[in-house]
Amino acid sequence: MSEFHGSGIPSRGTEQDPNRVPPPRTRGTGLRQRLAELRGPEVPAKALDARALAALAANPGCRRRAILDGAGVNKAELASALGSPSVFGQSQFAFVRGNAFEAKVKADGGTELLRLAHEKLDRSAEPPAGARVPDLTAQGPEGRTARTELALREAAEAPGAWTLLDHPMLALDVAGSLAFLEPDAVVVHPDGSWTVVEIKSFPMLDGAADPAKVGAAARQAAVYVLALERVAARFDTPPRVRHRVLLVCPKDFSNLPAASAVDVRKQRAVTARQLARLTRIEEIADALPEGTCFSPELPAEQLEQAVESVPATYAPECLSACELAFHCRDRSRASGAVTSLGRPVRAELGGLTTVGDVLAAARGEAGDPDDPAVAALRRAAALRAEALASAAGEAREAAGGAREVAPCR
């Protein structure tokens, strides 16, 4: 759960003489207002949560997602208005099952959760007994954020005991505005260090879970680690925020919890770089045509023109992380972009950005023969032609031999 308040670019205004040079954009216009105008008149901002920030970190080159998320645009409604409705999201059954499993893990004051934290992360500490579970209830996200920081300060001032923060609220600056993030839990160890806890409903089979799902959970947890580091930095003696998070999942096919320590240092570094990039959302907005708006209420043709005015970096991985993935995939395929084949393929092809360029290079019709990618394609095309010719020759010989031994009738 999170909240993010964005802002927009200047509105169209009245029509002007086409021969007159339009006045420059007002630099004093606040980013919040500018992004609000991008969203559309009276359109509420869509909350930007840790999942969305993690998805941005997984595809840092996508300017389209950066500006849409920064402006708080509801991408699911946008995709439907464009005629490419999204099926992205968690099913209601999975949501209910996940909530039931989380409640089981946190039952009895988080006894089982703290036991797993002790076993997987801090065996040298005293086993958790009578851990503190502070009340984080407060009015609004700002109040909950302040109450969370107060609880963390109280735990830091009284080390030597385990503390469990159930659904704390953290604030992270994103493009000049605050995003409010809600991790499943944060554990304060007896030495005063902090650990992020992620509780997921996908199974852990024989001690291992689906690598793709673990990776997504690690990217999400890395966002919480960054937010916790910002809180710790405000303390006189900053506590240590551990970079190994606790991932808790159902064991095998049961409802019993199992846990694993996941190192998120790499994901944290990537996310930090992406957040630094998000501070340049104003630059992306400046490059948009005057009057650009992403309101789903606009006519489909005008809306598509607005969306296509922002470059996208589509990859098959977007299908599991972005509501606009089907729209971007259709456009990527229509333009013949090699990114639709996956990032590894795109990385191997160097300056060849379309399928047409790749085929032309392979046939020797275009491309620099000294380019390693072009040379590899031509070698592969030659080997393929040789293999096909050999197979055709063998087929003809087999057909001729069959005619020779055919019985007379």
How is this structure best described in words?
Helices cover 46% and strands 9% of the residues. It has 15 helices and 7 strands. It is globular. The model is unreliable at 1-29 (pLDDT under 50).
What's the layout of helices and strands?
Blueprint: H1 31-39, H2 50-58, H3 63-70, H4 75-81, H5 92-105, H6 107-121, H7 140-157, E1 163-166, E2 170-174, E3 177-181, E4 185-188, E5 194-199, H8 211-232, E6 244-250, E7 257-263, H9 265-278, H10 281-286, H11 300-308, H12 325-334, H13 343-348, H14 355-362, H15 372-404
Parallel strand pairs: 5-6
Antiparallel strand pairs: 1-4, 2-3, 4-5, 6-7
Helix pairs in contact: 2-8, 2-9, 8-9, 14-15
